[in-house]
TrEMBL record:
It comes from the Bacteria. This is cysteine desulfurase. Belongs to the class-V pyridoxal-phosphate-dependent aminotransferase family. NifS/IscS subfamily. The keyword Ion transport does not apply.
Amino acid sequence: MQRIYFDNAATTSLDPSVLEAMMPYLTEKFGNPSSIYSYGRESRLAIENARKSVAKILNAHPAEIFFTSGGTESSNTIITAAIRDLGCKHIISSPIEHHATLHSVEYLHHNDEIKLSFVKVLPSGHIDLEDLEKLLADSEERSLVTLMHANNEIGNLLDLHAVGDLCQKYNAIFHSDTVQTVGHYPFDLRNTPVHFITGAGHKFHGPKGVGILYINENVKIKPYIHGGSQERNMRAGTENLYGIVGFAKALEIATANYEKDSAYIKDLKTYMKEQLQKNFSGLSFNGDVDGRSLYTVLNVSFPKNEKSEMILFNLDINHICVSGGSACTSGVDIGSHVIRAINNNPNQVPVRFSFSKHNTKEEVDAVVEKLKGLV
Ligand SMILES: Cc1ncc(COP(=O)(O)O)c(C=O)c1O
């Protein structure tokens, strides 16, 4: 049986054209970008061209783009730097962030005694901006606000401008985990009031293990990883040359096809929602599914019973890949912290379907048909 992959918020397949662009750097063009002879210069040029391309797409300056190993490293770098270098003594975040953020801020809170506040989350899954303003206004210390752009479990989109404006008003630093939106959303960083954003290549048909960190030119931080002078002294270690080339190529493809692909994927999400509503009773959708929501993610809760409790397991047996929360790294299923924060109903089983341009309505039909026997 053919596998159906509806877990594109966890990771996506590598685009063959991306692999093609990477291949020379996995084979004959292997020079160390720091070497001064021609082999090295060729690699350096590939990295700088990738940086220019990424910066142009995001409407940033190339000097504001740094390549890293992915979203986790990028977020760790800036959260640590905001405390160490930018005078932030108070972190304001939310209980629905990805663990890359949550576990970083909790670590700093417990080990460095940094004040940590969680902004209220509304039942829609959106951040309560009034509560955010109150937290900022009441803060006696400079704050770091770290709030994700699109939630990887429910798809809700944050209003970057509204949050950025509040941060400016209260002289706070603003970081947004944009891992789910880089490659899926038209950024205009020069006109967006944000100090830092992050991205990961594997979320938009690029390679795994490569990402970016955008550092607005008006903020200066020190590196997180120490060593050589790579990435203009901001991120030591021999560059992931083929990964960086692949990241830029994947972003170029995603950007060129954004209108077409986003409309297609949005249509699939709507179709799946309608088919679920038509065929099942007692469902509820998590997040602002018809409002400010990323077109790739659909999160639905089924009523809990003996059958539905086993839904993820049974879908897996039937070669259907979906997830109950974010990609589970520990192997221990303790449920989703995001769903718990917005809708703590123990009698429901949440399932996340997340789509890509490779999915089809026929696959949606097949999954809905299979679900009929499983819940
Ligand atoms: C919202 C979000 N932030 C951060 C990450 C971590 O990115 P990476 O796996 O590239 O470190 C992910 C990926 O799972 C994510 O979805």
